[in-house]
Amino acid sequence: MEMxxxxxxxxxxxxxxxxxxxxxxxxxxxxxxHGQVFLTSWFVIGLLLIASVAASSSIKRIPSGIQNLMEYxxxxxxxxxxxQLGEKEYRPWLPFIxxxxxxxxxxxxxxxLIPWKLIEIPESELAAxxxxxxxxxxxxxLTSLAYFYAGFSKKGLGYFANYVQPIPVLLPIKxxxxxxxxxxxxxxxxxxxxxxxxxxxxxxxxxxxFVPLPLMALGLFTSAIQALVFATLAGAYIHExxxxxHEEEHHE
Length: 252
Fold this sequence. Notes:
two-stranded antiparallel ribbon; disordered N terminus
């Protein structure tokens, strides 16, 4: 009885007024979603759409300006998909891998270049979309669905044979691997972006002049690398799913 009284006293005592992970929720029926993540995600999607329309509205034989930039980006994404999937298989998956890279890249840079925290919203604050674990998990799950679809569309039910090759004992390990792939993708991206924004925010608060600038530049570099790593691993997983036995023997 005394223990229960002690617990009730502890519950009524506020240790701190700081609440971690508070969000601005939108209520749609029985659903409760993070409004601030949707706002910044729509902003990133809007930037990509505007850049695409601007680059393709008046195409010139000799590109310049934003058309030249977008053609360079397209060439870079084509090489990225081709290196992971090969000459014969990369074309159907170029839009998916390219969209992943561009969305993550622009999201990461928006967190480093745009002062989201200066924009006030109810009960929360804005940040890069990839600063939220829900966004990175969603991207990782889309990648998992993509490589499962790639395997089934290429091999049919024979795709399940990969789980017992070269020996059936590997079945539990390969099933576990399917769970760890999206986990590693999502937590790697989320952890790096969150850590970078926290470090820069703390340094700007402590030393608000020139000291944080090199770290901000480093943050831009690492943000680009994180987008490249995510897209590269997505392509590698898809290639692993569609790779035939003949190709596996050739690689060995």
